[in-house]
Amino acid sequence: MAQVMHPNVAGSLFATDGKARPLQDALAATTLVLGLLSFITSFFHSLHLLTSWAGLVGLLVGIYGQWISVTTRERFALILGLGASGIGFLIGMAHGGLFGGVIGS
Fold first, then answer.
1. 3-state SS class at 6
2. 20 to 30 A from 53, CA-CA: which of 40, 61, 74, 101?
3. pLDDT of 4 higher than 90
4. Is 16 helix (H, G, I), strand (E, B) or coil?
5. What is the pLDDT of residues 8-41, one digit of tens each?
6. 42: number of Cβ within 10 Å
7. For residues 82 and 66, what is the distance between their CA atoms, to the nearest angstrom?
8. 22: helix, strand or coil
9. Global model pTM greater than 0.85
10. Beta-carbon neighbour count of residue 31 at 10 Å?
């Protein structure tokens, strides 16, 4: 009965190995929130500053999260956030960029 020795982690959202990883969980959640914010605001042309900055920060946080992630579930959430951040960032750059209309003419 080897299954008795292993904890049931099927209900766990991030820690598939049964260990608490608060930093990785926070990075994954932050990346998802920033990616969602960047993706949703990319539909509005006038919000290109928010879109591009949220996308850029989401990409940086997500890349660091991927670097230190341990479990597959963490990486899955990070990839979703990175994809949304990347799409939002690129659309925000196309609509005016990080400083469009603020710096320059």
1. coil
2. 74
3. no
4. coil
5. 655 555 556 778 889 999 999 999 999 999 999 9
6. 24
7. 10
8. helix
9. no
10. 28
- The pLDDT value recorded for residue 1 is 57
CB-based burial label for 53 (10 Å; 0-12, 13-18, 19+): buried
CA distances for 28 relative to 11, 55, 71, 97, angstroms: 18, 14, 11, 25
* Residue 48 vs residue 103, higher pLDDT: 48
Place of tokens 């949304």: 84
pLDDT of residue 9: 58
Residue 27 has what pLDDT?
96
DSSP label at 2?
G
